[in-house]
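INTERNAL TRANSFER SHEET
From: sequence group
To: structure group
Subject: Branched-chain amino acid ABC transporter permease

Please process the attached sequence and return the structure record in the designated field. Keep the field labels unchanged so the import script can parse them.
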Amino acid sequence: MTRIVIVLAALAAAIAPLLLTDQTFFVQTALTALVVTGLSLFMGYAGQASLGQGAFVAVGGLTVAVGTVTLGIPPLVALIAAPVLGAAVAALVGWPLLRLRGHYLAFGSLAVLLIIQTVMATAPLFGAGVGIFGIPPLALGGLLVTDQRVYSYLALAALAVALVVCHHLVRSRFGRGIRALAGSESAAASSGVPILRSKLTVFAVAGGFAGFAGALGAFFTPYVSQDTYPPFASFGYVVMAVVGGLGSVWGGVVGTLALSLWLQVLSALSATPGMPAAAGPILQYAGYGIVLVVFLLFVPRGIVPTLAGVRERRRERAVPTTVPAAVARG
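Return from structure group:
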């Protein structure tokens, strides 16, 4: 059943760009799901918290913007370099940050994002508050990518690769180690799990996913500034991960899609006649808060783990209870 659902979802995702006239929602949703997939891996499997995942999205976007516009690097090289730099920056800042725990780590990661935003707002190299315009189109095999549908399929392919990586990672020996880490760091350490190295590895993987998302988003826009990566977006990534289900490979995708559709409904509501001009952002902020509270109270495990639990209980009830013949004869 699960494989059928996955195949149908993949077919629907592959057909969707052919039917849509505007690819913006599809590309943004797929790239957001890529970021949230990495964050869900970090929060759900490694048991850590991050409110600054947008920092690594910004690193990816800046790699493309500065690399192609300022330094003249070929677009494809910049695209490849973005996830590498995203992972490297995550490992660099993670070395001191991941020694913190709980809300200290969450606020520390948020501080990294705020520092990057400040640099983008003041440093001429990064736009100095104005931003960087004129990012050239992505070139693949000598062909310029100008069709938005190509970006949709690139985002979809990147998300598929990320899901495969997460699937194999969590089922490996390393994955068993980080699951033990989420349960109890002291117990994991006594079992021989390298605590800091495991955290750094997962954080770097999540940073690489975010870096690629930022890079492809920069080509799609094509413009970056500090306003492209607001701190509230990083809070939204956390909400999406919680909604989909932490500790689930598919949770990031499901949570992103569910919340993105919910925000589209609120956006349409704010555009109805008679609504005040400030209704859009107010409804968006309220929408995130309402969803987070509802899920924490009533669906704390998230959509994917909850549905998996329901399916497992139905399967258990469907299995007939057999009584050994010797017991039946008394």
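Handover comment: The two ends are 40 Å apart (CA to CA). The mean pLDDT is 90.
Transfer complete.
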